[in-house]
């Protein structure tokens, strides 16, 4: 009971200021990432000066660049001062305010080009400023996501002026670009919100793990001290008569089960705590083998420990299992001491058990916390990859082709213009599809998606799902065959079902060569319906199948027409199928196609 009180006090002390600790960790990481951001911003500014040196008055560029340099030096000095502060006495909120002020000033400085450095007489250079500034805005979200006021301020002050400038210029194309900029801001704001929430959860898990580790060390130290004291008291009683020595060792520590055994392991005496803990009476154990208290699989281990003790070797704090009368196993730390008479002749063994059930429970809790932290980190890493690369790529294409239209519009014929518009449209659709998957995934991480099951016709559900991708299939001359039986009723959530069927069909289209076909069939089982989606595509290796639904594995590959993906869709599919009470398995061979088998519950009576 005393040890439990110590643990409770330590746990209370560790969790009291968890919000402050999270804030400290957020600001610490914020300043760490600010150094890289300052260097990157300075490089971008100097690059912009080189690009616009001949099209904008040079004194304006030089003045603007000088302001950027001075701000970089000033903010670098703040970072330098933060790193050398006294952590125990430093006001972390003051440092957070300083960072936000620095970000606002920097954001205003980066807004200047769209008012005073805009190349009015050079339309071909007008799209360059967004290409320079928008990636910088996205990088700021990725760097400052731990502190919302910082990344929101910088994003709004740098990206919003771009949109306003496009609307000010007027015209259909500029209006479209202005709307795209607003869409880009909305995406980054949502992305920053999700990353911020993930970082808070990760910090909380880390702080709690640290507290549990400290508690475990205190408990282990306490038990070691108890065992040392027990050994010392045993040594102090060596001069007493054998019977007195037996009794003193049996009752040395009333809180732990103790036994006196002969040199063959037969129990001669036991204390009251042994009776209470293991449930055997003295009559059931005295003059019986101590193996009655040992599980079948540990008999040889116990014989070896007794042998070592008889040989005079120290057997201390050995982890073992004890068996209660009701068959329940208890983990203990066992200490065996050799008993000798006045002439140092051995006559018995003293056994002391320390119950470590509580310690084992703490270890299990630590293991679960570690697994949760690793999962959170894997989720965060996947999210960062999508934000920094996959989500950026479509916008690069949109900006690139729109810039090409601006600069080469008069020299292009109608077909070339149509191709550029088609590329912009395709990139926009890809960005929307990726964003849809990304936001859906984010909702699953925060348990915002609710499953509302209803009775649905499976054939109609499949027809609705594949209708979205018929044009994609036609563009690759791929035939989609819906062979699902009519009037098959399943109990399932419609929205999530549409999502996982669409994702799997889209995946099949992506990895099927031109001229191939995709078959969707059904099979009625005793208590479920199996939906089989089979393609004639490139297939998969066993290693790829094993990692197909793992969030921490990067399995994204290009399709047969170089279609891009993130690997996020199949992870969503598995989660939605399981939330609907179903399951999914994959069968595939390289160059022989793939088959996704979804098991869905039948309509419940």
Automatic annotation (TrEMBL):
Residues 386-604 form the Histidine kinase domain. It is an enzyme of class 2 (transferase). Gene3D superfamilies: 1.10.287.130, Histidine kinase-like ATPase, C-terminal domain (3.30.565.10), PAS domain (3.30.450.20). This is histidine kinase. It holds the Pfam family PAS_9. PROSITE patterns: HIS_KIN, PAC, PAS. Residues 240-313 form the PAS domain.
């Amino acid at each position: 009971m005393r040890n439990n009180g110590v643990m409770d006090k330590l746990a209370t002390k560790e969790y009291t200021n968890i919000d402050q600790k999270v804030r400290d960790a957020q600001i610490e990481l914020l300043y760490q990432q600010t150094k890289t951001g300052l260097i990157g911003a300075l490089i971008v500014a100097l690059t912009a000066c080189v690009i616009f040196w001949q099209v904008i008055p040079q004194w304006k560029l030089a003045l603007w660049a000088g302001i950027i340099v001075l701000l970089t030096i000033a903010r670098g000095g703040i970072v330098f001062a933060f790193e050398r502060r006294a952590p125990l006495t430093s006001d972390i909120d003051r440092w957070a305010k300083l960072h936000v002020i620095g970000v606002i000033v920097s954001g205003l400085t980066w807004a200047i080009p769209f008012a005073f450095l805009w190349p009015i007489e050079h339309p071909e250079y007008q799209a360059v400023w967004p290409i320079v500034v928008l990636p910088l805005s996205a990088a700021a979200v990725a760097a400052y996501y731990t502190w919302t006021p910082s990344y929101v301020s910088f994003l709004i002050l740098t990206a919003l002026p771009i949109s306003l400038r496009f609307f000010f210029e007027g015209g259909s194309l500029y209006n479209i670009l202005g709307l795209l900029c607003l869409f880009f801001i909305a995406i980054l704001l949502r992305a920053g919100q999700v990353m911020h929430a993930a970082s808070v959860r990760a910090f909380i898990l880390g702080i709690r793990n640290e507290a549990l580790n400290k508690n475990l060390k205190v408990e282990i130290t306490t038990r070691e001290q108890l065992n040392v004291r027990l050994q010392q008291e045993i040594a102090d009683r060596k001069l007493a008569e054998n019977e007195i020595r037996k009794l003193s060792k049996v009752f040395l520590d009333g809180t732990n089960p103790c036994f006196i055994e002969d040199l063959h392991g037969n129990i001669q005496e036991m204390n009251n705590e042994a009776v209470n803990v293991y449930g055997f009476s003295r009559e059931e154990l005295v003059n019986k083998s101590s193996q009655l208290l040992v599980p079948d699989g540990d008999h040889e281990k116990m014989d070896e420990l007794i042998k070592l003790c008889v040989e005079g070797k120290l057997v201390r704090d050995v982890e073992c299992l004890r068996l209660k009368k009701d068959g329940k196993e208890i983990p203990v730390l066992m200490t065996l001491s050799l008993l000798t008479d006045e002439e140092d002749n051995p006559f018995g063994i003293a056994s002391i058990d320390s119950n470590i059930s509580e310690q084992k429970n703490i270890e299990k809790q630590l293991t679960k916390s570690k697994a949760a932290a690793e999962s959170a980190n894997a989720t965060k890493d996947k999210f960062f990859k999508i934000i920094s690369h996959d989500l950026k790529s479509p916008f690069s294409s949109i900006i690139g082709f729109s810039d090409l239209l601006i600069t080469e519009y008069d020299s292009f014929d109608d077909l070339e213009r149509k191709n550029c518009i088609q590329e912009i449209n395709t990139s926009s659709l890809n960005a929307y599809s990726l964003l849809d998957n990304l936001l859906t995934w984010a909702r699953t991480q925060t348990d915002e998606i609710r499953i509302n099951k209803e009775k649905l016709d499976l054939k109609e559900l499949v027809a609705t799902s594949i209708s979205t991708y018929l044009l994609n299939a036609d563009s690759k001359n791929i035939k989609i065959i819906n062979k699902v039986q009519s009037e098959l009723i399943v109990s399932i959530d419609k929205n999530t079902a549409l999502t996982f069927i669409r994702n799997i069909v889209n995946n099949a289209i992506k990895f099927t060569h031109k001229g191939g076909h995709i078959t969707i069939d059904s099979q009625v089982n005793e208590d479920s319906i199996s939906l089989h989606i089979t393609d004639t595509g490139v297939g998969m290796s066993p290693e790829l199948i094993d990692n197909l639904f793992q969030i921490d594995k990067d399995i994204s590959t290009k399709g047969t027409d170089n279609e891009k993906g993130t690997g996020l869709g199949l992870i969503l599919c598995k989660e939605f199928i399981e939330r609907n009470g179903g399951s999914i398995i994959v069968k595939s061979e390289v160059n022989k196609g793939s088959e996704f088998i979804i098991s869905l519950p039948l309509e419940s009576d």
